[in-house]
Amino acid sequence: MQNRSLRLLFVSFVLCFYSVTTTALAQEKCALRIRGYVVDENGSPLRDVLVQASDGMAVSTDHQGRFTVSSLCVGMHTVRCSFVGYQTNTSVVSLERDTILHIQLLNDAIHLQDVEIIGTQSETLSVGKQKLSLTELQERKGMTLAESLTALSGVTTIGMGNSIVKPVINGLHSNRILIMNNGIRQEGQQWGVEHAPEIDPFVADRLEVVKGAQGVRYGADALGGVVIATPNDIDLTVPWQGRFDLLGQSNGKGGMAHLRLEGNTSWLPNLGWRVQASGKKLGNYTSAGYYLGNTGVQELNYSAMLQYRDSLNSIEAFYSHFGTEIGIFLGAHIGTVEDIQARIAHGRPFETYDFSYTIAAPRQQVAHDLIKASWNHRYSPKSSLTMVYGFQRNHRKEYDVRRVESDDLPMADMVLTTQSLDAIFKQGNSSFGVQSLVQVNNNTPGTGTTPIIPNFDSYTLGAFAIHQFHVRRLHAELGARYDFKYLDVAGYRYKKGAANADGSIEQYLLTDTRKFHNASGTFGVLYHFSPQWSLKSNIGLAWRAPSANELYSDGVHHGSATYEVGDQSLRSEKGLKWINSLLWHTDRMQMSLDMHAQLVYDYIYAQPNPDSVRQTIRGTFPLFSYRQDDALFYGADLKWMYGIWPNIDYEGNVSILRAENRTRDRYLPYIPSDRLQHAVRWRYSRDQKEQDYIKFAHRFVAQQTRYDAGADYVAPPPAYHLFDVYISKQFAWRNDRQLVVLLSAENILNKEYKDYMDRFRYFTHQIGRNFHVKISYTF
């Protein structure tokens, strides 16, 4: 009896053990994962692709095109990837262990151009919208924001020398271009040509330009277009990851370094974090044959971000600091009328400068802090509410060589504080929004000079509505907006006339209030003629109130070494822009042709006065006076990419622009001339890696012949050709480690040239030959 009981106990133990082990094995067999990467035909990662696997939950790819499907059993599985604008990809996988897939989606040509509208729920039918490719972003790392965007057709720059440049879109710049920095309107002292955007390009993973007048969605000042700088969302699927960039260049004998780290939090998986920092140090740069004194630059930038995402909510907190110190070319600050005339006639510095990292007066020192808090709540798949609050503090100091006080005392010390609050509700194909903006500008006392612009308070309120229609091959958009702006000004000005007996000049208190209001509208259509041909057409009405410097400036602008005189009677600019885009896409050819025309009523511009210069105690400066006329801008931008052979591409763009002063029947000053950029790229690796290539590029800028003789201090400079070479190599291992090394030489022939859009062209040439080494490591 006892033996029988022992046998029963043994059998029960064996059965229990078998049951537990088989259950465990069964669970182990259903604990497999399929991970993968989804890219387009060019090898670029695709975000928000829907990935479905049999026996597994549907997931979406992240910003790097990655996905993970978990809790899969051993056996055969069907993996289906679908995304608007692309053909659905279906793969069958025999799953025995964790598997990694590399999936490429092919373009669905008939709706390729709809991705912008439907696939990403864009608020606007963005005619003329272009973005930098991953290759272009890699090649232009370390450049300023404006220089990076010149890879796009229709985008040029205006500025002073090599370090201070601003983007120009179809001939318009400064306050006519809105820059969206991570969803916040970038607000600094951007009215000056020599006030470059205070944005660290390393923060942005995507750089886009919208050429159409976008006053409805983005508000007043989007007269010429919009620049959109956007970081990727934080990847919440990995504990942590990062990227390190190291860049060096020969011209200026310096470089940049950048580090980014991000990941999720173990105690709250839906919460992600990101921190990053970058620094730049450059000394005096050289033209083709000489150093330019005091042209160094140094930067220190950093940012932090928190993101929380669940099925219904997305919350983001973001902070960034941009700090820079820029030297102003010494030869632009001149003592006498005879000296300035002699330098302009000579066309290059009389002095000889050596290389130095020292940044002395004249110089700029700028700090820009930005805080963003946003919340998006999805009520349903087709309706959501977004609230965005922004706070910005821009502190600009400009230093000049002083005769009495120390050069460490700034000539201009301005603090601009901006607060914004936006609320946008989306319901189906409609969007409704309310946007508000409050600005306070204060000139810090104690500089010993009269500020070029007075103190002011500005209040702006706007409301808009946009609706989209989609009927088979036809897509249309209709939008309207109304804005109101109130400006309150107070500041001291010197009285005109002779000085007192002791040499002093009396001052008076300038006070003024201005009210501006206007309506904006947009109507656009997109039609697919065939799988290869599509047409976009958009007409937009936008406006811009005159800025404080255009109204009230009367003094030396030390950053640009010019004397500026404003006009308090200026009215708002109103622009009507019509842009048509023809898009052609085949297996070997991609082409877009943008044809645009814009009539700007009461266009405000600074006219150089070659018959007069302004002498002050600080020196002698070219005189620029603001005036207002009706203007017409029109032209065309062509961009293409042609696959000559499977591993050789020919790409490029052409921009043609014309601008007329309709009131005076004359030409407008500072309008970009015609230009061509094109390149041949050979992808030399057998596996066709996107970053394994050799590229030869050529840039041609024509002479600006459409100008009024005698209306400037010197005629526009001659046309020029520049040649560049790029060699790139990509190293990858373990799927999550990647190293890209890029060697390049710009202006490899060391061409001596001047650009019409450079304010320093009166005194010096542009930058000479420049070798680059750029290393990017992703881990």
UniProtKB/TrEMBL annotation:
Keyword DNA repair: no
Signal peptide: 1-26
Keyword check for Transport: yes
Membrane topology: Multi-pass membrane protein
Subcellular location: Cell outer membrane
InterPro entries tied to this protein: Beta-barrel_TonB (IPR000531), Beta-barrel_TonB_sf (IPR036942), CarboxyPept-like_regulatory (IPR008969), Plug_dom (IPR012910), Plug_dom_sf (IPR037066), TonB-dep_rcpt-like (IPR039426)
Domain TonB-dependent receptor-like beta-barrel, residue spans: 363-747
Record keywords: Cell outer membrane, Membrane, Receptor, Signal, TonB box, Transmembrane, Transmembrane beta strand, Transport
Pfam family, one: TonB_dep_Rec_b-barrel
All copies of domain TonB-dependent receptor plug, residue ranges: 132-226
Family the entry assigns: Belongs to the TonB-dependent receptor family.
Protein name: TonB-dependent receptor
Lineage summary: Bacteria, Pseudomonadati, Bacteroidota, Sphingobacteriia, Sphingobacteriales
